[in-house]
Amino acid sequence: MLGAVASVAVFAVLTACGQDAPLTTPDGQVISTTTTRVAEVNIVNADRDYSRTCLAPTTPDDAATDVSRIVVTDPSLLDAICALGIGPKVTAVAANGAVPAYLGPQLTSVPVIGATPDAAAVDAADPDVVLTTPQTSATAEAFGDARVVTIEPGEGWEDRFGSVADALGRSASGSELLADFEKQAKRTGRFLDAAHNQISLVRFTGDSEVIAGTDTFAGQILGLIGVQRPEPQRSPESTTVTDENFTDADGDLIYVSFVGDDGLEHGSDVLLSDRWLNMGAPTWKRVLSVDDEIWYESSGLAAAWLVLNDVKESINGNS
Question: What residue stretches are annotated with the Fe/B12 periplasmic-binding domain (predicted)?
C-alpha cells in the first residue's frame, strides 16, 4: 500500500480549484507544485526545463549542400539531432514510438506519422534526407527519391552520434561537440573529487531491483566523469539483486531510478523497507532519484549532458 501511495504522490499535480491558473501566495508569487520527493528520497532536477535540452545550432561542413528537411524512422536518432542543434529541420518522425519527453518542445512537437505513413503525410514531410536504422529501414522506402542514410548501432553512443553528424554534413561539429563533452566530464570529475566517491546505480522494475553495470549509459557517463563504483558493481553487465547480494546495492551515494509506474510502485516499497534503510547510504540520507529515461533509455549526447548536470548538482547532496 505504501508503494501505491507514493506512486500517486509522485504523479499528482495540484491545480487551483480545477482551473489551469497556477497557485499563488497572497502577494501573487507562484507556488511551485513540482513533486520533489518519492518515498522520502529527493528527486534530482525535479523541475528540469526540457526546453533547454537541445544545444546551439551547429555549422555544416559545407553550407552549400546543407540538409534542410529531415525525417527519422527511429526516435532514438533524435537525440543526436537535438545535440547538433538542428531539431527545427526535422519535419516528421516516421515511427510508432513516441518522441522522448526529455528532448523538449523542439522535437516533441514534430509530427509522428507512424511506421507506414500515408501519402499525405509523406508529401507534407517532403524530406531531402531520411535517417533510418537497420530495424526500421523498411519505413524509409515510403519516401521515394529522398536520400536514405542507415545509421548502424555501432559500438557505443558516441559512434552513433558521430554517424548521425556525418550523415547530416556536420562531421567537424560532431567531433568538436564530443571532445567538449569529454573535456567537461573530466573537469567536473576533478572539481568534485569524483575518484573518491563510490556511486551505486540501482534501477527498480515492477518486480526486481537491478544494479546497473558499467556498460549502461549512466555507467559510461559516470566512468567518463571519473566516478568510482563499489567493488561489486564493476562488471560491464547489470546484476539482479537477490537476498544474497542485497547489500551490493550500497555505496557512498545511491542513484535510484524507476522503470515505469510499476517500477515506481515496487521501488517505493523497497526504499521504505527496513532492510534498505539499514544500509549505509540510506542511513546517511545519501539516496537520490534520477530520471530512468534519461539515465538509461536514451544514450545520446543531449542526454549525456543532462546526466552530467545531474551529477554536478547532486553528487554532494542528500535525500
Answer: 69-319
